[in-house]
């Protein structure tokens, strides 16, 4: 039975009816015309259908976009849930197609651009429509102009949140066969790209006057969606630009990865096609939209169709379709047709909430959150001030000698485990300045000296900055260290010569502001490097001795063989022996530890 009043709405003509309920034209107390969608009373206790109805309300709450039919309010009257939406006076794209309306490729691109903007808004909120089709695209009445500006996307009844639980029907498939992506038809996981595939089907139908796949049974259509390649739309509409023909073919790819990656990306491709083909042509092959003999919008009961199940076409807030549905709701009886009253064992529930109420509550909650946040900020500020006060006291309080030494020792332990001993430098400097006569001062000075050497060594690895002229001692140190890659022994010998030449007379350790200004640090750094290079030099000398011995052995064998040879063979052997001896001279002349071997090689070459 048709209700006469739902919440504040006076119910008028029915606009659509289906297995789950109906949609009615209604008026609110202010006289605003709206569309009210009602779940049939005898189905209100069905948990699955109730959950799906509530899910559509939750979806519409988050979608605020001019290209999407807007939710106005929702509620429950005597246990019968309903929600109100804006009323869109006009026709669905499905009705226009069935009336014989054909669209130019420019009108098709205009509509597609409008839909991509609406889909982007939905996808940005994590919502996949899953039932995009001409019946769910409403074209508002209006003067001739941009067709896309009058298009609104409707019916989020089987929309799915990304990562959420999917609505299901028989075979876990929900949707309309002629406008369903292959992965959706297979009942598998879907994402936002099913909506892009469906939009490609809608564009095909607008240009060709029919969807690319049809058949006598829904199962046959589903099979074609899954396995048969779509025909090129240019075979039905010859004036379609090649770029648009290729884009629609890409949208209808069976592989989701081959489609445009997002609604935003698709919109940019469509805009590029418009830019490539500028023209003033806006009329379709049948003339302007306003000149068409459009059917009168249905206002009498029985003229509308179901907005819950995708089985019919409707005028007003939403529109269904007349294609084959595979939703379970399509096989349910008409709501209220011969159904007996449902007996309940509890008091009827009534409630009513407007979107404006939700917005006001959200603003109030945001205000409460800001107040709470400000209170916490004030508390944090007070705590911070107290900590800063305590920290300032501790900062300016002079630590005792034992406290300083304890912190230095703690830093040494941390350095063993990967810490940075330089963190203790302020404590070391303070200890040496305030307690130079403490028994532990020598240990701290040694540590300070080690840190100064570390800093100087690190600095010596870099080139002098700012045009600074290095001192002779620094210059000799850098020149000696440059020989390490070639010969650790030669590098060590050069450092020993540096110490002999620049032996400092003032050996008092101190922490200079600039390590390069302290000659004694350079001398100590050279000694540190000599200690490090000792094992490397020994290994180098042993290896060089083995190599030189082997070369001399080979030279002796060749000399013996050359003594027995005659003619050209003897000359070849003599040349090989000479090359071996020359290699000793070339390789080891700069290595002092090989001086005797080089001299021997020169004598043998002179013979």
How would you portray this structure in words?
- With 607 residues, the protein is an alpha+beta fold.
- Among the domains are: 91-296, Transferase(Phosphotransferase), domain 1 (Orthogonal Bundle); 541-606.
- It is 48% helix and 9% strand.
- The protein contains 17 helices and 12 strands.
- The chain has a 7-stranded antiparallel β-sheet with strand order 1-2-3-4-6-5-12. Strands 7-9-10 form a 3-stranded antiparallel β-sheet. Strands 8-11 form a two-stranded antiparallel ribbon.
- Helix 3 packs antiparallel against helix 5.
- The termini are far apart.
Task: Give the topology.
Elements: E1 5-6, E2 9-17, E3 21-27, E4 33-39, H1 47-62, E5 71-77, E6 80-86, E7 90-92, H2 93-98, H3 105-124, E8 127-128, E9 137-140, E10 151-153, E11 160-161, H4 182-185, H5 193-208, H6 218-227, H7 242-251, H8 263-276, E12 351-354, H9 355-396, H10 401-416, H11 425-434, H12 441-460, H13 472-481, H14 488-502, H15 519-564, H16 567-588, H17 595-606
Antiparallel strand pairs: 1-2, 2-3, 3-4, 4-6, 5-6, 5-12, 7-9, 8-11, 9-10
Helix pairs in contact: 3-5, 3-8, 5-7, 10-11, 11-12, 12-15, 13-14, 14-15, 15-16, 16-17
Write the H/E string, N to C. Answer: EEEEHEEEHHEEEEHHHHHEHHHHHHHHH
Average predicted confidence as pLDDT: 80
CATH structural architecture of the domain at 91-296: Orthogonal Bundle
Class of secondary structure makeup: alpha+beta
The CATH superfamily of the domain at 91-296 is identified as Transferase(Phosphotransferase) domain 1
**Proportion of β residues?**
5-15%
The rough form would be described as: elongated
Strand order of the largest sheet: 1-2-3-4-6-5-12
What's the main sheet like?
A: 7 strands, antiparallel
How far do the termini sit from each other?
127 Å
Number of distinct beta strands: 12
Determine the fraction of residues in helical runs and give it as a percent range: 40-55%
State the CATH class of the domain at 91-296: Mainly Alpha
Examine the coordinates and then state which fold CATH places here, giving the name of the CATH topology of the domain at 91-296: Transferase(Phosphotransferase), domain 1
H/I helix tally: 17
pLDDT < 50 runs, ≥5 residues: 162-172, 281-346, 504-513
């Amino acid at each position: 039975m048709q209700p006469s009043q739902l919440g504040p709405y006076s119910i008028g003509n029915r606009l659509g009816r289906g297995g789950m309920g109906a949609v009615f034209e209604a008026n609110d107390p202010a006289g605003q015309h709206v569309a009210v969608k009602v779940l049939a009373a005898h189905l209100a206790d069905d948990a699955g259908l109730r959950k799906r109805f509530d899910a559509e309300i939750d979806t519409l709450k988050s979608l605020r976009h001019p290209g999407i039919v807007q939710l106005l309010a929702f509620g429950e009257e005597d246990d019968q849930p309903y929600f109100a939406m804006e009323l869109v006076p006009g026709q669905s794209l499905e009705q226009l197609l069935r009336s014989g309306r054909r669209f130019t490729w420019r009108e098709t691109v205009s509509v597609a651009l409008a839909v991509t903007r609406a889909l982007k808004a939905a996808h940005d909120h994590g919502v996949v429509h899953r039932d995009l089709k001409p019946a769910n695209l409403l074209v508002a009445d209006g003067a001739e102009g941009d067709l896309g500006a009058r298009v609104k996307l409707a019916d989020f009844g089987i929309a799915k949140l990304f990562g959420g639980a999917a609505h299901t029907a028989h075979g876990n498939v929900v949707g309309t066969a002629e406008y369903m992506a292959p992965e959706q038809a297979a009942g598998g996981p879907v994402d936002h790209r099913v909506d892009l595939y469906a939009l490609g089907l809608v564009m095909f139908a607008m240009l060709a006057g029919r969807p690319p796949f049809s058949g006598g049974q829904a199962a046959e259509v589903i099979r074609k969606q899954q396995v048969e390649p779509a025909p090129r739309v240019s075979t039905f509409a010859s004036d379609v630009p090649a770029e648009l023909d290729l884009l629609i073919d890409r949208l209808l790819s069976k592989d989701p990865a081959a489609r445009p990656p997002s609604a935003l990306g698709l919109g940019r491709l469509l805009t590029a096609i418009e830019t490539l083909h500028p023209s003033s042509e806006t009329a379709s092959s049948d003339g302007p939209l306003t000149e068409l003999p459009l059917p009168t919008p249905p206002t009498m009961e029985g003229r509308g169709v179901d907005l819950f199940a995708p089985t019919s076409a409707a005028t007003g807030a939403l529109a269904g379709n007349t294609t084959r549905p595979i939703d379970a709701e399509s096989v349910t009886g008409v709501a209220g047709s011969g159904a007996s009253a449902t007996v309940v064992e509890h008091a009827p529930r009534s409630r009513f909430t407007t979107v404006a109420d939700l917005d006001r509550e959200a603003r109030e909650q945001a205000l409460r959150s800001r107040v709470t946040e400000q209170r916490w900020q004030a508390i944090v500020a007070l705590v911070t001030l107290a900590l800063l006060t305590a920290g300032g006291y501790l900062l300016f309080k002079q630590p005792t000698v034992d406290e300083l030494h304890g912190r230095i020792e703690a830093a040494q332990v941390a350095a063993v485990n990967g810490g940075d001993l330089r963190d203790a430098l302020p404590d070391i400097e303070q200890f040496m300045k305030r307690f130079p006569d403490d028994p532990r001062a020598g240990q701290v000075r040694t540590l300070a000296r080690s840190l100064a050497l570390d800093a100087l060594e690190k600095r010596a690895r870099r080139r002098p900055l700012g045009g600074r002229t290095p001192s002779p001692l620094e210059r000799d140190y850098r020149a000696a260290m440059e020989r390490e890659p070639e010969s650790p022994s030669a590098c060590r010998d050069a450092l020993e010569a540096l110490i002999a030449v620049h032996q400092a007379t003032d050996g008092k350790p101190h922490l200079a502001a600039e390590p390069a200004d302290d000659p004694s640090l350079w001398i100590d750094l050279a000694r540190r490097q000599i200690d490090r290079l000792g094992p490397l030099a020994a290994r180098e000398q042993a290896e060089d001795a083995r190599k030189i011995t082997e070369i001399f052995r080979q030279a002796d064998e060749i000399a013996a063989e050359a003594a027995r040879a005659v003619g050209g063979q003897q000359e070849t052997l003599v040349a090989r022996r000479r090359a071996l001896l020359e290699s000793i001279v070339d390789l080891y002349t700069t290595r002092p530890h090989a001086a005797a071997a080089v001299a021997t090689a020169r004598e043998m070459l002179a013979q």
